[in-house]
Amino acid sequence: MNDIKLAVVGGDIRMIYCAKELAKRGFEVSFCGFDSAGKDCGDAVRCRTVKDAVKGAAVAVLPVPYSYDGCRINAPFSASEIRVDDVLEAVMPTQLVLAGVCPPSFIEKAEELSLSVIDYMKDEELTIRNAIPTAEGALELAMKELPVTVHGAKTLVLGYGRVGKAVAAAFSALRSCVTVCARHADALAWANAAGYKTADMKDICRAVKDKDIIINTVPALIVDNNVLSFIGDDTLIIDLSSVPGGVDFEAAARYGVKTLHALSLPGKVAPETAGENIADAVCGIMRKKGVI
Amino acid sequence: MNDIKLAVVGGDIRMIYCAKELAKRGFEVSFCGFDSAGKDCGDAVRCRTVKDAVKGAAVAVLPVPYSYDGCRINAPFSASEIRVDDVLEAVMPTQLVLAGVCPPSFIEKAEELSLSVIDYMKDEELTIRNAIPTAEGALELAMKELPVTVHGAKTLVLGYGRVGKAVAAAFSALRSCVTVCARHADALAWANAAGYKTADMKDICRAVKDKDIIINTVPALIVDNNVLSFIGDDTLIIDLSSVPGGVDFEAAARYGVKTLHALSLPGKVAPETAGENIADAVCGIMRKKGVI
Amino acid sequence: MNDIKLAVVGGDIRMIYCAKELAKRGFEVSFCGFDSAGKDCGDAVRCRTVKDAVKGAAVAVLPVPYSYDGCRINAPFSASEIRVDDVLEAVMPTQLVLAGVCPPSFIEKAEELSLSVIDYMKDEELTIRNAIPTAEGALELAMKELPVTVHGAKTLVLGYGRVGKAVAAAFSALRSCVTVCARHADALAWANAAGYKTADMKDICRAVKDKDIIINTVPALIVDNNVLSFIGDDTLIIDLSSVPGGVDFEAAARYGVKTLHALSLPGKVAPETAGENIADAVCGIMRKKGVI
Amino acid sequence: MNDIKLAVVGGDIRMIYCAKELAKRGFEVSFCGFDSAGKDCGDAVRCRTVKDAVKGAAVAVLPVPYSYDGCRINAPFSASEIRVDDVLEAVMPTQLVLAGVCPPSFIEKAEELSLSVIDYMKDEELTIRNAIPTAEGALELAMKELPVTVHGAKTLVLGYGRVGKAVAAAFSALRSCVTVCARHADALAWANAAGYKTADMKDICRAVKDKDIIINTVPALIVDNNVLSFIGDDTLIIDLSSVPGGVDFEAAARYGVKTLHALSLPGKVAPETAGENIADAVCGIMRKKGVI
Question: How far is A177 from A168, CA to CA, in rounded Å?
Fold first, then answer.
């Protein structure tokens, strides 16, 4: 794969690990926007400008999220601002743009320039892989916040999708007593087969009682005022669902229940793993697109 | 057990949980030295003085460690100093003194007053129970410090006693790839039976290579200058053995290897569990001594 | 649920456990066709004829498979033959017929009589629940046939659907070294997250080498002559996929590779669990159909 | 190790695997007494007589048990009888005799001839290693006999030594609900740390209630008439302790409780692993004795 060039533009420490990993896999990797990151980038080659980095690349990899304001690339380690428009201008229609968490507006803008943009954060495999660092992040928070050990603690996991499965597995592996609460009978049958206690989501009010920790993975207001009224004030709630989350945080505060809204855990708790996972996703997408 | 009175004197938050737990088990518990601890103590009764607390008690439970300087009881939440001598004076020879980490000097002083002192930190069961919060503490540190997930990380555990077993089990449960390095063939056979890779301590220099994390549990200088010369600078070393520890920290610094000397983890990561474990030990000792 | 009557007609020992379990859940259960089964049936009521059993029942539960020849109900414990036609005649259009493994011909025949037939073996939950006894059956076979322990043995699981997941989990739990071989990248990501080694189905010839045991769960000819040429003659192959199975058994015999085609394991290895699972499925279907 | 010769004399299929394994490790291995065993013995060399096999060997390895009657070597695959006396005569005082399960009479007889005999079945490591096939054998029996899956079954393990630990771990790994019943507080603390429920041996009568399976590992009459009176007739008892076992089998028969006395499981369920474990023990003993 020595002939294929990839450009990595901006991003946090994850993208440095991503660039390094791609170089390790035999790609020619050029990158820009990591001026102040004191990290070794392996065999990846540092470029001064976006233009230099992108030139000749088969794929331009933008960070996750690609931008916070839609104007500037998310590039905390860059000495100077990198404008989204400059990146789009530097890319040719023959080149593929991979970016994390792209709103429709960005994709439309790119399409106007005849550019193909793929949001790698929608990649199923990446989402599965990221469930592991998310679960470990939840575990780390639980260990930090709970006055008891996870071993022996009563844990309730709300939702049994990718993250719910990883969280239940991690807590159960450490001998926490795990109950999974989900809506679908299939999910409950799976949870039962995996060895957990189960509760139908209709019975959530009973399920939340006497738990040491409740971890929500459902992106909907599940833990509302009514549910909170059944939760003891010794219980810790960790909400892993994306903004606005699945917990009525104000009501929780009123009830004196401690809540943590933990977002984007993979990049925080395991940036190297998260960067390698992105590199995996980039390779998977290139395979599907026939680039490699 | 309503007729038996126990006194808890001083200590950190663990001893509050210990007092609460003992009260929950039906003992009449009086305590002093927690003036500024904003914690509910359940049914335990707060006393103003050591004398009041100890009066009529079958057992006086001192903290862990009972003192940092041999003069004053370790009592961070006490409004005023509690002198060790005052406690010893308040106790009668018919009462039992239980304390954590007692030097011979303390035991001698007590014996001069015809008092029986038992160091509950030497209790085998307590040591076994405390291995769990210690292992969880090591896990929390690893998650916090490592840029990769524990899942898939290569972990080396030095020593396979109580703590080594708990650490290996916890990391392996999270799907880390665990190698146990120990001296005795029996320990290695056990580690193998538990499903870990094993290495003889004689081969430690080969065993430390390419590990993401090394956790020492042996209270002897195992990771010396020579061993360190084989350890990569991406490796994290967590030393769980008591002062002075099993790692040549200065040499590690020279080699640029990151080290953490993590002591007294149970009280830090899970004070409630640690306090309940002490309550367990107190009960166990009382049973052996015929108090209950 | 005391007012709802259910009829169980024929079947092997699973259906006795099923009848017993339904009675335990508060239904009025009548059954026929178990004359010579020396098993206590709890509160279920024995009837002499199909007519008596079915009369007044909301649901008639037929066995799995409901029949081997399409003419006679599968009823090994029945003193006399139970004809399928007699059952269909005894049932009224207001009654629901639940049966296991129904061919289209049976459903058509029932529809001609305006009867609703539901094949409970197609119930997703039941299939998930049955994966557990299937995996345990595979484990029992492996333990019986292999000269080595499962602990430490190298296991290859082909396919990562319901049964593949349960099998991988069971073998890995006993510290076998498990590799999962599947086609879809998502499945491989899941298998990786669960802590197994993975291999793309395209690389199956490499994956089968040096394995102690290979367990196929894919209902397609995966282990063909070519693949078999890479398998050592110490390797045991267990095929869990339904007839005709996923292994070229003739070629395997030529190569001297031992194969076992293990079918319908739940009923064989854990008839009580299998019967309770059917009772679960019956209840789930009744809920969906508004019967309860 | 090419210069060291070892002789393997008689035994069941385990000893063939043992001979093969020793040859694989680079020893020159000669053996006799496997005439009718249709097994390939790798690089080990077949001898016609004991004399030929033993000649020049550093160590003579006898089977487990070395003999059933004290006169003839246990050699089911031998065309002709091998007399114990003939073996002892063939061995020189400079050669080491390793044998399994030696009564004092055998050791005395050997000593009279100035021969050193070591009973490798007393080797601590071997005992630990053999706990794994023993636990798998218990699991296989439970799967074969129980009408329910081990997953979800309520299992009681009596004793928490080597075998008890391995059994509890195996059943728990398959998601059985395991309770450990032991005498010592330390053992119970370990079992609790491993995540099992625990019961003091004093409370065994309560602990045995409502269990699907009870596995005894204690070599003493634990499950006596009184304890049996608390055990339901659906419960399966597997006794792993050596003759006479820990169960009053007659009383069990009277109560209608099904019992299995399972002895020498390693050789039965996993002869290859058992043979390799003996080879391991032989090497360990040779190291201790300075032979290698």
Answer: 9
User: Which residue type sits at C254?
Assistant: R
At C292 the pLDDT is 87
Interval C30-42 mean pLDDT: 81
Residues C32 and C100 in one domain: yes
- Using a CB-CB cut-off of 8 Å, the residues of chain A touching D175 are 194-195
* Cβ separation A128–C186 shorter than 8 A: yes
Chain A touched by B280 (CB under 8 Å)? no
Residues C140 and C239 in one domain: yes
Q: Note the pLDDT of residue B1.
A: 53
Alpha carbons B227 and B225: distance in angstroms, whole number: 6
Contacts of C122 (CB under 8 A, 6+ apart): none
Alpha-carbon distance of D224 to D230, in angstroms, equals: 10
Residue C39 pLDDT: 66
| D146 within a domain of the structure (yes/no) | yes
Q: Report how many domains make up chain D.
A: 2
Q: Which of C147, C174, C270 sits opposite D170 (nearest CB)?
A: C174
The answer to whether B189 contacts chain C (CB < 8 Å) is no
User: For C45-98, how does the pLDDT look when each residue is reduced to its tens digit (9 = 90+)?
Assistant: 899 999 999 999 999 999 999 999 999 999 999 999 999 999 999 999 999 999
Is residue B65 domain-shared with residue B24, that is, in the same domain?
Answer: yes
Q: What is the mean pLDDT of residues C5-22?
A: 95
| pLDDT range class, residue B43, cuts 50, 70, 90 | confident
Which range of residues forms the domain containing residue C206? 131-261
Q: Which of C163, C158, C176, C101 is nearest to C136 (CA)?
A: C163
How many CB atoms lie under 10 A from the CB of residue B239? Answer: 27
Q: Give which of D79, D90, D20, D1 is closest to D54, Cα–Cα.
A: D90
Closest CB to C136: pick one of D13, D143, D270: D143
What is the rounded CA–CA span in Å between residue D128 and residue B189? 6
Q: Is residue A266 part of a domain?
A: no
Residues C170 and C223 in one domain: yes
Is residue B67 located within the same domain as residue B36? yes
Whether C1 has a pLDDT exceeding 60, the answer reads: no
Say if residues D171 and D164 touch (Cβ distance below 8 Å): no
CB C158 within 8 A of CB C222: yes
Q: Which of A37-41, B55-59, B89-93, B115-119 is the least confident region?
A: A37-41
Residues C199 and C81 in one domain: no
pLDDT in tens, C207-230: 999 999 999 999 999 999 999 999
